[in-house]
Amino acid sequence: MWPTLYQFSTEGGANLGLHTYGLMVLLGFSGAFLLVHYRAQQVGFHPDRLVIVYIATAVGGIVGARMLYAVAVEPARVLANPLALFSSGGFAYYGGVLGGGLAIFLLTLWLRLKPWKQGGFHPDRLVIVYIATAVGGIVGARMLYAVAVEPARVLANPLALFSSGGFAYYGGVLGGGLAIFLLSLWLRLNPWKFVDIVAAALMIGLGVGRLGCFFAGCCHGAPAPTTPDAIPLLPKGMLQGQIWLDSVFPFITLEFHGGVGRLLHQHLYPTQLWSVAAGLGLAAFLSLLWRWRRFDGQLVGLVLVLEPIFRILIETFRADHRGYAFTWFMPAKYAQYLPGMANAGGSLSNQAEAVQVGLTTSQTIGMVMMVVGIFILIVRRKAGVAEEIPVRAIDDDFDDVEI
């Protein structure tokens, strides 16, 4: 729809540009970190102790996303060459660690934080560090991959440095969530209270990140029914695609004229927009529920139950290339109502009117997450809410910072 926000050519003929997908991922990280930063102080977690959590979340999320994508979409290649797990798709994750670490070190020097002398960070000073961590990690990972694996391609076309893909959102959630839980134990923070704080932040990250999918054209839906009376919403030529209003389900369809999707110039189910609405809607719901929660762990239990419901339903209408955990045959007259799941095989079998359908990897993981969420809600229901004493920020400002 709008994969590149801004692009220009150098005198040497190389194309450079700012990609919408990467920007949305960055905004997702930033929004999630800011929400955690704000709420952590309310419950008694000092922000300076959380810096390492943000770093680990970014790194764990990116690594988890890449690993799940590799296992689900290209398992044969990874089995043949396990190193491809960390190279294909455009990321070398030790580069992400180096890039993020370097960004934090330089910003620490610039802001004169010196925590070993001051005894703490001013919370406001940490905001730029969180953002730099996400930027440094992602850019460092991509740059190191380019230098190590495909230097000739990047020298010929520097735009390729930031254009390769290969992520699975559930892998990012699982990787980042695991990093958060383990680090909260290591930092002696109440892990259940902390994952409750993070629950809404994760949904913000998912919702905003899916905007990147919408603009890039990935994670698109299957061909959708339409009528000749469909109304276009965007001026012709404004973006590389169109949004249509129609009188039949799904009432809104998307048409892509470019980008990374495989279905172009046809009406598709708006799966990216559904995912955006689900993620941001759940974030708003969890934020409203925060003050009325009855026990620590309630919000993370709810998100583990509710988010997979939306994901499983949305996956039913997706048609991009994904891995399938289970497949079986279904009569074609029923399979037509599951266009995304029917892409597991796509062709008729030797059984009359039977089509191969399947549960995607994400749908299967979602079902497991729902079981885990229900288990948490049952086991933790009598735990109550631990005492929360807000942390008072250090009474200083940026006046003493030399720039």
Verbal overview:
By secondary structure, the chain is mainly alpha-helical. It contains 13 helices and seven strands. It has helices spanning 20-43, 51-73, 75-80, 93-111, 115-118, 127-149, 151-156, 169-186, 191-216, 271-289, 298-315, 332-335, 361-379, and strands spanning 4-9, 15-19, 231-232, 241-245, 252-256, 324-331, 354-360. The strands form three sheets. A three-stranded antiparallel β-sheet has the order 3-4-5, with no helix packed on it. Helix 8 packs antiparallel against helix 9 (191-216) and helix 9 packs antiparallel against helix 10. It is globular. It starts with a strand and ends in a 24-residue tail after the last helix. Mean pLDDT is 73; it is low at 88-102, 104-129, 162-166 and 393-403.
Strand content: 5-15%
Terminal Cα span: 40 Å
Assign the structural class, choosing from mainly alpha, mainly beta, alpha/beta, alpha+beta, or little secondary structure: mainly alpha
What is the total tally of β strands? 7
**How is the largest sheet built, in terms of strand order?**
3-4-5
Q: Quick one: overall form?
A: globular
- The SSE order reads EEHHHHHHHHHEEEHHEHEH
Helix content: 40-55%
Biggest β-sheet, characterized?
A: 3 strands, antiparallel
Average of pLDDT = 73
Number of helices: 13
- Low-confidence region ranges: 88-102, 104-129, 162-166, 393-403
List key phrases describing it:
403 residues; mainly alpha; three-stranded antiparallel beta sheet; globular; disordered C terminus
